[in-house]
């Protein structure tokens, strides 16, 4: 069914407290953001689309009327806009639908947030950069190499056009608590690690990545929102990133080592395959703006954080007890 279908519950209206509207609340990052704001005492209004029911509101953000009703009915103090098509290959194949979500829906949300006086936070990506001259500061010129990066950059421009007081948070490749290992490009590597009994398995060892924990991004979003409510200078572009530079090959080896599994079947691929040439080689983000404002978080070490995410997908669930206790 199309559009926005829930109205605020009476209970929600009666409860006093700051309200945050999180789009993409069913997604990898949105789930972590909802949890973080909830535990920080915020009233969270989460929206999803296909996976929305029963926990979240169902709202097709490409439906202009639905977006208007959503914002005007809830009048949140803060909007965190996570919903997007973020898979570069899907973006190339279903370009019109993806642009509709990444650009037009963003534009409508930013416009309505400005009308309602909500602080708008747009989640963007390191893929706005070409990766040829890292690290990238907030003021460096974007030059996306693929449709996904271009659509997110177009989204940023719509946000600035309609909502000059908005915050744009650029982040790199994410991992976190996943519903299935394939939900994140990082946890997907677990499947390669488990192929130890099969033939050898090649993994990219060219593209430099900075895997970033959704929990850390969520904390940064809450800190930004809380500070911005008191300080109007908190606006514009911010960068946040994990600190460990790794290729996918290195991430997979780290996972294997963390679980005492063999890694000698993993073969580093040192020449970039043709299907990856439209990805930035190294789009490292300089995060000093957030750090100077004391709004950043110190990321947990990759090995510890990824172990927490993967243990539910290990064959032997007793493993966790034997390691942590
Ligand atoms: P995700 O897991 O793919 O979630 C996408 C979300 O968008 C889901 O909640 C989905 O709802 C919602 N959605 C899809 N179509 C919609 C529509 N027509 N109307 C309303 N909602 C719709 O994405 P993510 O990984 O959490 O990414 C969050 C943000 O971080 C995105 O802006 C992305 O560009 C950015 N980012 C992600 C990464 C990464 O590695 N994942 C890296 C850098 C930046 P349903 O599932 O309920 O349909």
UniProtKB/TrEMBL annotation:
<dbReference type="GO" id="GO:0048269">
    <property type="term" value="C:methionine adenosyltransferase complex"/>
</dbReference>
<keyword id="KW-0554">One-carbon metabolism</keyword>
<dbReference type="Pfam" id="PF04321">
    <property type="entry name" value="RmlD_sub_bind"/>
</dbReference>
<comment type="subunit">
    <text>Heterotrimer; composed of a catalytic MAT2A homodimer that binds one regulatory MAT2B chain. Heterohexamer; composed of a central, catalytic MAT2A homotetramer flanked on either side by a regulatory MAT2B chain. NADP binding increases the affinity for MAT2A.</text>
</comment>
<dbReference type="GO" id="GO:0006730">
    <property type="term" value="P:one-carbon metabolic process"/>
</dbReference>
<dbReference type="InterPro" id="IPR036291">
    <property type="entry name" value="NAD(P)-bd_dom_sf"/>
</dbReference>
<comment type="similarity">
    <text>Belongs to the dTDP-4-dehydrorhamnose reductase family. MAT2B subfamily.</text>
</comment>
<dbReference type="InterPro" id="IPR029903">
    <property type="entry name" value="RmlD-like-bd"/>
</dbReference>
<comment type="function">
    <text>Regulatory subunit of S-adenosylmethionine synthetase 2, an enzyme that catalyzes the formation of S-adenosylmethionine from methionine and ATP. Regulates MAT2A catalytic activity by changing its kinetic properties, increasing its affinity for L-methionine. Can bind NADP (in vitro).</text>
</comment>
<dbReference type="GO" id="GO:0006556">
    <property type="term" value="P:S-adenosylmethionine biosynthetic process"/>
</dbReference>
<dbReference type="InterPro" id="IPR005913">
    <property type="entry name" value="dTDP_dehydrorham_reduct"/>
</dbReference>
<protein>
    <recommendedName>
        <fullName>Methionine adenosyltransferase 2 subunit beta</fullName>
    </recommendedName>
</protein>
<feature type="domain" description="RmlD-like substrate binding">
    <location>
        <begin position="19"/>
        <end position="313"/>
    </location>
</feature>
<comment type="pathway">
    <text>Amino-acid biosynthesis; S-adenosyl-L-methionine biosynthesis; S-adenosyl-L-methionine from L-methionine: step 1/1.</text>
</comment>
<keyword id="KW-0808">Transferase</keyword>
<dbReference type="GO" id="GO:0048270">
    <property type="term" value="F:methionine adenosyltransferase regulator activity"/>
</dbReference>
<dbReference type="GO" id="GO:0016740">
    <property type="term" value="F:transferase activity"/>
</dbReference>
């Amino acid at each position: 069914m199309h559009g926005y279908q829930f109205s605020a519950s009476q209970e929600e209206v009666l409860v006093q407290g700051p309200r945050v509207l999180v789009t993409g609340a069913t997604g990898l990052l949105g789930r972590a953001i909802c949890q973080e704001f909830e535990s920080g005492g915020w009233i969270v209004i989460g929206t999803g689309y296909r996976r929305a029911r029963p926990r979240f509101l169902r709202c097709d953000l490409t439906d202009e009327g639905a977006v208007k009703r959503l914002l005007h009915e809830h009048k949140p103090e803060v909007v965190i806009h996570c919903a997007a098509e973020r898979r570069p290959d899907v973006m190339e194949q279903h370009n019109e639908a993806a642009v509709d979500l990444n650009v037009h829906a963003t534009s409508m949300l930013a416009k309505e947030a400005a009308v309602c006086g909500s602080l708008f936070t747009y989640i963007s990506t390191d893929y706005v950069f070409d990766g040829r001259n890292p690290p990238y500061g907030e003021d460096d010129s974007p030059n996306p190499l693929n449709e996904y990066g271009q659509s997110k950059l177009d989204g940023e421009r719509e946000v600035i056009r309609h909502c000059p007081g908005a915050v744009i948070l650029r982040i790199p490749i994410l991992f976190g608590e996943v519903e299935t290992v394939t939900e994140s490009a990082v946890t997907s590597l677990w499947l390669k690690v488990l192929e130890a009994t099969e033939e050898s398995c090649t993994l990219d060892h060219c593209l430099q990545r900075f895997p970033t924990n959704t929990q850390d991004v969520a904390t940064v979003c809450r800190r930004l929102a809380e500070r911005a409510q008191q300080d109007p200078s908190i606006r514009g572009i911010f960068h946040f990133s994990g600190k460990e530079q790794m290729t996918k090959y290195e991430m997979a080896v780290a996972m294997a080592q963390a679980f005492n599994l063999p890694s000698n079947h993993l073969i580093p691929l040192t020449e970039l395959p043709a299907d990856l040439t439209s990805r930035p080689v190294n789009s490292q983000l300089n995060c000093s703006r957030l750090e100077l404002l004391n709004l950043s978080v110190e990321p947990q070490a990759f090995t510890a954080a990824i172990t927490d995410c993967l243990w539910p997908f290990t064959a032997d669930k007793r493993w966790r007890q034997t390691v942590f206790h």
